[in-house]
């Protein structure tokens, strides 16, 4: 007889849609809890490779950042009809320096490192929510066989993203978003 593990945390979903304040009642168990259109989305903690890659992206952005700009890992982001947690968030110099959740108007770029458990959200759901929130730039990073590939998108007419291009480990380029810098994924872990 198979015995299924019982959850260690008992909670009931709200009778109305999920809201930001409900997130504070959830356990701090390493899972990522996000709200999209009033529904709770739970993804497991990312693996070490995912975390290392996100750390390297953050370090690359931070090393090129102009004074006053901040690059944050897993910052809470208020979006239209939701609360999201991008892997890396670039905050404008005018963004508040404290708090748990940042407003989309304070964000210049969000980066999602694609994992098997987040693939659909990173490719379809989250970009549309980021665009709707007015975030000027979005990067999606895939871990390919030969190294990471960055898909760079820019916001068009405040409604959707257009692909600016891809940057792989063999083709570093000079970019302008969120500021002028050389983007070189060859230095990042596979």
Automatic annotation (TrEMBL):
<keyword id="KW-0540">Nuclease</keyword>
<dbReference type="InterPro" id="IPR011335">
    <property type="entry name" value="Restrct_endonuc-II-like"/>
</dbReference>
<dbReference type="InterPro" id="IPR012296">
    <property type="entry name" value="Nuclease_put_TT1808"/>
</dbReference>
<dbReference type="Pfam" id="PF05685">
    <property type="entry name" value="Uma2"/>
</dbReference>
<keyword id="KW-0255">Endonuclease</keyword>
<protein>
    <submittedName>
        <fullName>Uma2 family endonuclease</fullName>
    </submittedName>
</protein>
<keyword id="KW-0378">Hydrolase</keyword>
<dbReference type="InterPro" id="IPR008538">
    <property type="entry name" value="Uma2"/>
</dbReference>
<feature type="domain" description="Putative restriction endonuclease">
    <location>
        <begin position="21"/>
        <end position="176"/>
    </location>
</feature>
<dbReference type="GO" id="GO:0004519">
    <property type="term" value="F:endonuclease activity"/>
</dbReference>
């Amino acid at each position: 007889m198979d015995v299924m593990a019982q959850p260690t945390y008992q909670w009931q979903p709200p009778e109305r849609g999920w809201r930001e304040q409900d997130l504070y009642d959830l356990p701090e168990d390493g899972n990522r809890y996000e709200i999209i259109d009033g529904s709770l989305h739970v993804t497991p903690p990312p693996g070490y490779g995912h975390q290392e890659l996100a750390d390297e992206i953050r370090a690359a952005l931070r090393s090129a950042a102009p004074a006053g700009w901040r690059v944050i890992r897993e910052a809470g982001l208020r979006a239209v009809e939701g609360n999201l947690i991008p892997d890396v968030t670039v905050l404008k110099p005018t963004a508040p320096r404290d708090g748990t959740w940042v407003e989309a108007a304070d964000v210049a770029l969000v980066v999602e490192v694609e994992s098997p458990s987040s693939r659909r959200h990173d490719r379809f759901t989250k970009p549309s929510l980021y665009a709707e929130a007015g975030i000027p730039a979005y990067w999606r990073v895939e871990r390919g066989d030969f190294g990471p590939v960055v898909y760079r998108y820019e916001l068009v007419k405040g409604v959707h993203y257009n692909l600016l291009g891809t940057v792989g480990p063999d083709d570093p380029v000079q970019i302008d978003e969120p500021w002028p810098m050389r983007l070189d994924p060859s230095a990042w872990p596979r």
